[in-house]
Design goal:
about 170 residues, alpha+beta, Alpha-Beta Plaits, 3 helices, 8 strands, elongated
């Protein structure tokens, strides 16, 4: 089963390479990377269109066992934030990420099994922290992957029958 962790593995390295900055999970405890950096947060980890009835089934045989495979399109929404020392630098970093996810990086992401369904418009998400500003810009991105589940189909090898006699 695909999870949002599989999706993170799909976009993390290519986006990090394209931006040249550290990318971390948003809601974690620990030291923050040096500016500039980016963070991600999963908003909806598993969106399946049409519920349990989605996807398609196919039967096959493998290693002498009958099996059934269900393939479903699964989506997840991530919120991405881009932090910098100035508002202009944060907007530039977010713009580069948006361009990569929306167009220039689609081939690389597709190789990793990710389809970008939607990127929302970047927004100013700057925070005032009492005596300073935390400059950040962010947007949401929705990815789609193929989820594959396989189960063994129990087969009946032999059937014993009993002859019944009918009385009149």
């Amino acid at each position: 089963m695909k999870t949002y962790a599989d999706m993170v593995k799909g976009f993390y390295a290519p986006l990090r390479a394209a931006l040249g900055v550290e990318i971390t999970e948003t809601d974690t405890v620990g030291d923050r990377p040096a500016l500039p950096f980016a963070s991600y947060k999963v908003l909806a980890p598993r969106i399946v269109q049409n519920g349990a009835m989605s996807g398609y089934l196919e039967q096959f045989e493998e290693d002498g066992q009958a099996k059934e495979r269900k393939v479903t399109d699964v989506e997840a929404t991530f919120s991405l934030h881009f932090y910098a020392k100035s508002s202009t630098a944060a907007w530039a970093l977010a713009g580069n990420a948006f361009e990569y996810l929306d167009f220039t990086g689609q081939t690389e992401l597709l190789r990793k099994g990710l389809i970008v369904v939607e990127c929302t418009n970047p927004q100013d998400r700057t925070l005032y922290l009492g005596d300073a500003y935390e400059y950040r810009v962010g947007f949401d991105v929705r990815f789609r992957v193929k989820e594959e589940m396989v189960r063994i189909i129990e087969t009946i090898e032999e059937v014993e029958t009993e002859q019944l006699e009918f009385r009149e």
